[in-house]
């Protein structure tokens, strides 16, 4: 445990919200009103890449008013959810300090966040809660890996080869389940589900014998399918890289010029990852379907999904693996819930809404550790916490450090 945590356990209960949350003003109300608009704008910025992805996925029918309405509704619900969590954690911090006075180590940060998260999970739409639970689970995975509490975790963190193998396994498991329509899961790529039965029935037995090796799981030629995938995912990756660069820049004035200057040193991490991932997957999948028969579609797709996971080597961060692991756990839990059981305990476990429980506990845990043990909170947790509070969390952490420094 860090020295900051030890000091906080002993002395944080003596602090007030004036010293920790808003030393710049003596009024809680003035501080909250000053944060209202900036926190809202910060959440609009945080979820903007998701808006772009949704638009890209529905580009062909973007003129449909219903689709535009659904995309904007989804985006606004995400923004409102982030705002409630970010602004609410600040608000509840002040309320608890005013109502109950000095508090201890756990109730200084963790309790207000648990309270607002518990309210949030009962109000958020189901699809927003699903996305929030996956993100929260990713945060937990990152925290556990950065803690390096056992030799296996240490080995995985230090070995890109082992991380790549894990991602290949996750890719295989997720795409296999997506293909069989067992789960509805957001993943980096979506496999073609095969030719329609009606189309296959129209082909005579002799024609099937002659051309079955040229049948594939998609419409059109394999060449068109391959290059369409590269074009779509390349543009998507490029947009996400540019948005990420805009998000990391504090400049607003002169932003286009700033981006042009940065273009020479652009790493295009997301673009490279998506291009290699979809390129390897579609090439191997089409090759297997053509040379080993489309009747082995599931096997061919599973092999292609596993081998395409090698693209993880082109992404320097832990993000795709943590997301893949979170998705795998979610899929496994979905399968477990479908199994019949006679045990009362298992029935009780299945009845728990794990989406709500994960969000209600994991996000407050990540915020609490961000304040006192920042080194074990990964990039996902840091970005989420910083942007949902418009960097207020960073300022609170600096205020805590400044306050506790007098006791060293």
Class by helix and strand content?
A: mainly alpha
Main sheet summary? none
Low-confidence stretches: 196-213, 251-255
**Which of globular, elongated, flat, extended, rod-shaped describes the shape?**
globular
State the order of secondary-structure elements, H for helix, E for strand: HHHHHHHHHHHHHHHHHHHH
Q: Mean of residue pLDDT?
A: 79
Determine the strand fraction and express it as a percent band. under 5%
Distance between the termini: 16 Å
Helix fraction? over 70%
For the secondary structure, the number of strands is 0
The helix tally amounts to 20
What's the gyration radius in Å?
24 Å
Characterize the structure shown.
This protein is 74% helix and 0% strand. It has 408 residues and is an all-alpha fold. It has a domain at 159-338. Helix 3 runs antiparallel to helix 5 (65-100), helix 5 runs antiparallel to helix 6 (105-121) and helix 6 (105-121) packs antiparallel against helix 18 (354-372). The relative contact order is 0.16. The model is unreliable at 196-213 and 251-255 (pLDDT under 50).
């Amino acid at each position: 445990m860090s020295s900051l945590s030890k000091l906080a356990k002993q002395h944080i209960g003596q602090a007030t919200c004036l010293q920790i949350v808003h030393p710049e003003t003596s009024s809680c109300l003035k501080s909250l009103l000053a944060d209202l608009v900036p926190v809202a704008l910060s959440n609009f910025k945080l979820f903007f890449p998701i808006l772009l992805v949704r638009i890209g996925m529905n580009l062909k029918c973007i003129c449909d008013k219903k689709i535009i309405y659904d995309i904007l509704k989804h985006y606004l619900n995400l923004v409102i959810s982030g705002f409630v969590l970010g602004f609410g954690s600040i608000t509840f911090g002040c309320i608890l300090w005013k109502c109950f006075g000095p508090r201890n180590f756990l109730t200084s940060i963790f309790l207000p966040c648990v309270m607002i998260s518990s309210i949030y999970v009962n109000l958020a739409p189901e699809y927003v809660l699903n996305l929030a639970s996956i993100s929260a689970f990713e945060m937990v995975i990152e925290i556990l890996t950065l803690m390096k509490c056992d030799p296996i975790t240490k080995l995985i963190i230090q070995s890109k080869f082992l991380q790549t193998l894990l991602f290949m396994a996750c890719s295989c498991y997720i795409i296999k389940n997506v293909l069989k329509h067992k789960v509805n899961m957001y993943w980096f790529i979506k496999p073609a589900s095969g030719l329609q039965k009606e189309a296959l029935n129209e082909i005579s037995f002799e024609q099937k014998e002659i051309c079955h090796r040229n049948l594939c799981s998609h419409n059109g030629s394999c060449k068109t399918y391959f290059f369409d995938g590269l074009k779509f995912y390349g543009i998507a990756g490029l947009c996400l890289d540019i948005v990420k660069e805009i998000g990391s820049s504090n400049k607003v004035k002169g932003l286009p010029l700033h981006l042009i200057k940065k273009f020479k040193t652009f790493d295009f991490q997301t673009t490279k990852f998506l291009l290699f991932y979809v390129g390897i997957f579609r090439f191997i999948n089409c090759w297997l379907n053509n040379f080993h028969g489309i009747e082995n579609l599931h096997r061919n797709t599973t092999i292609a999904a596993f081998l395409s996971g090698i693209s993880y080597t082109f992404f320097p961060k832990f993000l795709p693996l943590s997301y893949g692991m979170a998705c795998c756990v979610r899929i496994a839990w979905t399968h477990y819930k479908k199994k019949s059981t006679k045990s009362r305990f298992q029935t009780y476990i299945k009845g728990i809404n794990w989406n709500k429980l994960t969000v209600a506990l994991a996000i407050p845990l990540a915020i609490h550790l961000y304040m006192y043990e920042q080194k074990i909170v990964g990039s996902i947790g840091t970005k989420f916490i910083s942007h949902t509070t418009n960097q207020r969390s960073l300022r609170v952490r600096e205020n805590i450090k400044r306050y506790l420094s007098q006791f060293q």
